[in-house]
């Protein structure tokens, strides 16, 4: 063998080994063979490696639409399998697989777009066990966890607004999240991670109460530089020039439980103290709030709902504000009465009706406060059949 042939063989071997190393590294970092099609096995895939000419294709791990109502993440087949995910379709021009990652009681996740479902979902969960999911950051650039309540039906609070039968609690983050229960489908909350500490979601459901409870939460991890991240102090964050803001467990039907004062109980949950923010859109400088139309119960925060007739319930006559709001109320900074253009002179609103107000105070935010009970005290009568609030907002152009 002459020297030229010897060195040609050596160089060819080096190129082949380097090409294989690149292939192996790239594949382990979410790459996939461009020719890989549905149903191709591991043996076939290895047979397609031709050295030194190896075609490596990368694709972004973006959201993808699945064949059902859930969205997935575009991953390589092997990675989806390693995450115990479910492949529901293809993505990235058929180079990736749309992977749905679902978890239930007693599990852990560090995967973006994880679904946390009740056992047997969408079937009813009978309860009995404490159901916990531990959420770790998927990388060090993650600052916040967005939790979408796609479907959340738990037992109502007792007549005094306490989540004594069912509850969901969220701990471990750098955001204080109140204990809630009841009907919260469509709600979204934002929880800041506390460094590398995990966030724990716990659902408690009483086996003693027969109820068609169920839940499906979508857990989205937001990067520190993500445009959709909620500002500090905002448990909820709305975008768009208009929308509807509902208090937790808002609904037009009454709670069937009686309060400790032996009157119709409240749907409004006790011990709430949180901020709701609305992103100021480009070209808009103010915001207006009003009751949801055609719903007389859409602002029943304090007082006696059953004792009011239609001339009071849901009207400006039933509206209370200022110093009279001491137990349960909504705070809107620096408001102006829409009908008169005059300052409201207070930022607290309660009662069984709401006067439309606007404000130019920035950022756009309102605060929700409820006290520890809905029963009678030495100075106040009991709240009766309160629902909470459903407020429509509309931003005002500059």
TrEMBL record:
Occurrences of domain CUB (ranges): 105-222
Signal peptide: 1-19
Pfam families: CUB (PF00431), CUB_animal (PF26080)
Cytoplasm in keyword set: no
Classification via InterPro entries: CUB_dom (IPR000859), CUB_metazoa (IPR058698), Sperma_CUB_dom_sf (IPR035914)
Domain of life: Eukaryota
Keyword vocabulary terms for this entry: Disulfide bond, Signal
PANTHER family, per the entry: CUB DOMAIN-CONTAINING PROTEIN, INTRAFLAGELLAR TRANSPORT PROTEIN 122 FAMILY PROTEIN-RELATED
Protein name: CUB domain-containing protein
The species this protein was found in: Iphiclides podalirius (scarce swallowtail)
Organism ancestry: Eukaryota, Metazoa, Ecdysozoa, Arthropoda, Hexapoda
